[in-house]
Amino acid sequence: MNHRTVEKNPRGWLWLVGGILLLLLLLPPFVPRFFIYILGLIYVTSLLAMSLNLLVGYGGMYQFHHAVFYGVGAYTAALLLTKTSLPLWAGFVAGPLVAALVGWVIGWFCVRLTRLYFGMLQISLGSLIWAIVYRWYKFTGGDDGIHGIPMPAFLSSLNASYYFILAVLGISLVLLYLILKSPFGSTLQAIRDNAQRCEAVGIHVRRHQLRAIVIGTFFAGIAGVLFVVLEKSVFPDLLFWTLSLEIFIMCLLGGWFTFGGPILGAAITIALRTFVGKYTEYWTLILGIILILLIFFLPEGVMGYFVEKFRGKKGSERGLP
User: Fold this and answer.
1) What is d(CA 59, CA 67) in angstroms, rounded to the nearest whole number?
2) Of 44, 134, 250, 292, which sits 20 to 30 A from 272 (CA to CA)?
3) What tens digit of pLDDT does each residue of 56-65 get?
4) How far apart are CA 103 and CA 54, in angstroms?
5) What is the 3-state secondary structure (H, E, C) of 81-148?
6) pTM attached to this predicted model
7) C-alpha distance across the termini of the chain, in Å
8) CA atoms of 47 and 316, how far apart (whole Å)
9) Within 10 Å of residue 196's Cβ, how many Cβ atoms?
10) What pairing do the DSSP bridges indicate for beta strands 146-147 and 233-234?
């Protein structure tokens, strides 16, 4: 399908997305379990990167420690499933809600600071939460984490987890898209571009930023719950700042001014870590070289480059300069 078809028939994109979704639905019976697991991990990480991109790419906020909300969502679900007799759905719902609550508390302090200090304070508060999880052995398991998290029969197999994660990812992406296309999403992007002008026309900048943080951390909590479904375990590294940096790189790699860029960035990063890491422990060196090349030649990211090229071709066909 070329761009002319898409331009003349907007439903062409729907057919393309539907075809990809159909392919992903048909994969499990025909590919090895290892690749199903990797795809599931890509789906989980993609949602996490998308939740960060809502704040960084579309909100212009220095969300430097986003992984802590991912970990909070995962640990909340894990603790409720292992230490209480509450039903499964309670843990799945509580994970995103607690992550959003923690995001609101941290965000309430951070939005009162300028961009750099925003990021520094968030790293400090997020690291404090990581330290509590890492040291509270009796409750969180400390550095051992929590393993063998029970799952119901319909989520006991890898294929069932794969389909569940794919369904939740699809619903989450639709919701994120609707949010970004709403007046709130347009206002958020306006704040990113010029916060002072937005304040001058009567927009409450801090309130919109705090709402965006709550929404972004809520979806990060959903990603954390999906990680529990896939791995049946949690560990303190989910809240560590190095994972936050890795997610940030995913957004940069794919293109943080595009909707689907973080998905591509997550797929590239996990593929490098999985397949290149089999042959050398220095896979991060390769990732670093790719990032340097991107900064010089593709500053908008991989998907951002193709989006700009696609728009350029459309403009030239219409006779635009």
Assistant:
1) 17
2) 134
3) 999 989 888 9
4) 14
5) HHHCCCCHHHHHHHHHHHHHHHHHHHHHHHCCCCHHHHHHHHHHHHHHHHHHHHHCHHHHCHHHCEEC
6) 0.88
7) 25
8) 35
9) 8
10) antiparallel
